[in-house]
């Protein structure tokens, strides 16, 4: 456990050294500039748009970090040949993989916590500066805490994306890993279509294959409740729990697979 | 050395941009393009960014409406307005302001809008499919029938439907009754817009209601001025050349101003608004007595 912690903290430090957290500055500037400009452009819909924009930006920045750092986690060590030094120490390959994963998840968590804090601060400021009449028309308060449900599911989704990127990075080049991860993320948003494929094809075999893929591929669309929280629609705790459990199970599957692939790799 | 080079290049970039600004713009065939018009296709392409894309299309719709309205072109084309609103409300079916504002934009006659109350009705009915209990959408539908179709029976039906929905203001039921009994009556119209001006939470809607009330004031004032012009004609046997004639005849105390402060004109022996007035186009005076 301790070894795992060392690897994880090292990944976090490396990402700080690599100036990954600079994206926070971009995020803060984007939100503050948008909150000012959007008020002039959107005919009274500024709060809704800042909510949409904040959630989309948190998801997008997180996705970029998860993909572009995730794909290099293993590859960089192999490319720099530092993997030899690492594996000669008392550290198993499984600890190496899981530690690397935990480190990136820690980076994402810190990143997201700061972004969410900044987002709520901007919303709080906007909420405090509008007239009571305009506030009365909102479907939910500016700093509605139920929006954190969407943030939680975005975080689980990013953890899953990181696991996918890490899995691909154990056996392929960064370019290919990035393509495969992003491709899987896109396909994962069309999952509902795979489920209803029999409605558009006549072949039972094709429908059966699509149904199989629906269950096998990660269902990324399930983690998207941004629309619901912005419009104050209910997101039951049971949905939150079952979706998070689904994400956790898939992450475990990918990590086990990544460890299995990495354990078989010959670095000679 | 590097700093100097960077500063020089930056100045060059800014300078060239300023220079370019002064040159005549290139000719363009269309005012704007909408690459994807199918809401279904856009919904799929949006992945998890549907609501954000809806916001962007909403901003585009407002800009398209505003830019076209302000343009100096002889014939103003609002061709992209309905497709943009359709995309907005398909990507975010609960984007209520897009339905209600959109209906106002679409129904407004030329040159202030495309003059398409049929599209306004289509947009509001699309919203009602998703939210059949939304009294604001029902009220907006009633407005379109009342104001632009002059179909007071249908307008009263929709106001009545709105009154029955949860959260509807208490004045909605009397409004339905007044519309049915006295549709086309200027006092009934005034009552309707006064309710909106006093109770609407959105500033834009309140301003719009205030503009409609000023239009009704202008219609009242123009009626009064026309009576004075008729009086002048019967006294002198000829039409007035201008308002000073009426002042000299003791019928007016000074230059008559419209509710926005612009002087009225005399056109064909009748009072008229200045062509620059923001109250134009006025509702048909013949139908609002």
What attributes characterize this protein structure?
heterodimer, A: 268 residues, mainly alpha, 76% helix, 0% strand, globular, B: 289 residues, two-stranded antiparallel sheet, 61% helix
Short description:
The complex is a heterodimer of chains A (268) and B (289). Chain A is an all-alpha fold and 268 residues long.
Question: How does this model look, in words?
Answer:
The complex is a heterodimer of chains A (268) and B (289). Chain A has 268 residues and is mainly alpha-helical. In chain A, 76% of the residues lie in helices and 0% in strands. Chain A has helices at 2-17, 23-41, 46-70, 72-79, 82-87, 93-129, 132-136, 148-169, 174-188, 191-195, 204-216, 226-230, 237-264. In chain A, α2 packs antiparallel against α3. Chain B has helices at 2-22, 39-45, 50-70, 81-91, 96-107, 117-130, 135-148, 152-163, 172-182, 186-199, 203-236, 243-248; strands at residues 265-267, 270-272. With 289 residues, chain B is mainly alpha-helical. Among the domains of chain B are: 35-131; 219-272. Chain B is built from twelve helices and two strands. Chain A binds chain B through residues 38, 41-45, 48-49, 52-53, 56, 59, 131, 133-134, 136-137, 186, 189-190, 220-221, 224, 226-227, 230-231, 233, and chain B through 44, 47-52, 54-55, 58-59, 62-63, 92, 94-95, 97, 101, 201-204.
């Amino acid at each position: 456990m301790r070894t795992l912690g060392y690897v994880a903290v090292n990944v976090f430090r490396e990402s700080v050294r690599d100036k990954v957290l600079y994206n926070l500055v971009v995020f803060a500037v984007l939100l503050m500039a948008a909150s000012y400009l959007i008020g002039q452009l959107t005919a009274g819909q500024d709060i809704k748009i800042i909510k949409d924009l904040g959630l989309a930006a948190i998801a997008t920045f997180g996705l970029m970090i998860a993909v572009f750092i995730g794909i290099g986690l293993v590859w960089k060590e192999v490319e720099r040949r530092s993997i030899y030094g690492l594996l000669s120490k008392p550290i198993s390959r499984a600890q190496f993989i899981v530690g690397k994963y935990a480190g990136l998840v820690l980076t994402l968590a810190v990143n997201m916590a700061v972004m969410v804090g900044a987002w709520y601060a901007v919303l709080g400021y906007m909420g405090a500066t509008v007239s009571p009449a305009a506030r009365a028309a909102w479907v939910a308060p500016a700093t509605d805490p139920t929006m954190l449900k969407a943030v939680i599911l975005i975080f689980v989704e990013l953890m899953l994306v990181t696991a996918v990127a890490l899995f691909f990075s154990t056996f392929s080049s960064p370019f290919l890993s990035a393509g495969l991860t992003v491709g899987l993320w896109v396909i994962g948003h069309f999952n509902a279509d795979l489920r209803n494929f029999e409605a558009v094809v006549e072949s039972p075999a094709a429908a059966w294959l699509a149904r199989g893929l629906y269950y096998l591929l990660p269902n990324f669309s399930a983690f998207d409740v941004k629309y619901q929280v912005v419009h104050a629609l209910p997101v039951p705790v049971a949905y939150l729990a079952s979706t998070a459990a689904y994400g956790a199970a898939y992450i475990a599957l990918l990590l086990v697979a990544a460890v299995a692939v990495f354990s078989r790799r010959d670095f000679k | 050395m590097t700093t100097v080079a960077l500063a020089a290049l930056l100045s060059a970039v800014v300078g060239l941009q300023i220079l370019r600004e002064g040159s005549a713009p290139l000719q363009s065939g269309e005012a704007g393009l909408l690459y994807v018009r199918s809401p279904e296709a856009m919904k799929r392409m949006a992945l998890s960014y549907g609501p954000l894309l809806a916001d962007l299309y909403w901003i585009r719709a407002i800009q398209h409406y505003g830019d076209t309205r302000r343009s100096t072109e002889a014939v103003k084309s609002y061709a992209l307005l309905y497709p943009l609103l359709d995309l907005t409300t398909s990507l975010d079916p609960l984007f209520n302001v897009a339905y209600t504002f959109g209906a106002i934009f679409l129904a407004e006659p030329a040159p202030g809008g495309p003059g398409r109350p049929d599209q306004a009705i289509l947009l509001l009915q699309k919203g009602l499919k998703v939210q059949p209990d939304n009294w604001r959408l029902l009220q907006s539908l009633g407005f379109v029938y009342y104001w632009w179709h002059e179909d007071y029976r249908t307008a009263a039906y929709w106001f009545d439907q709105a009154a029955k929905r949860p959260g509807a203001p208490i004045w909605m039921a009397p409004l339905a009754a007044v519309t049915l009994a006295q549709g086309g009556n200027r006092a009934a119209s005034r009552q309707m817009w006064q309710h909106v001006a006093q109770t609407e939470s959105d500033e834009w809607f309140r301003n719009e209601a205030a503009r409609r009330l000023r239009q009704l004031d202008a219609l009242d004032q123009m009626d009064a001025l026309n009576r004075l012009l008729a009086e002048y004609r019967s006294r002198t046997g000829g039409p007035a050349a201008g308002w000073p004639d009426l002042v000299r005849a003791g019928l007016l105390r000074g230059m008559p101003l419209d509710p926005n402060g612009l002087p009225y004109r005399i056109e064909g022996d009748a009072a008229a608004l200045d062509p620059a007035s923001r109250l134009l186009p006025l509702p048909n005076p013949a139908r609002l007595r």
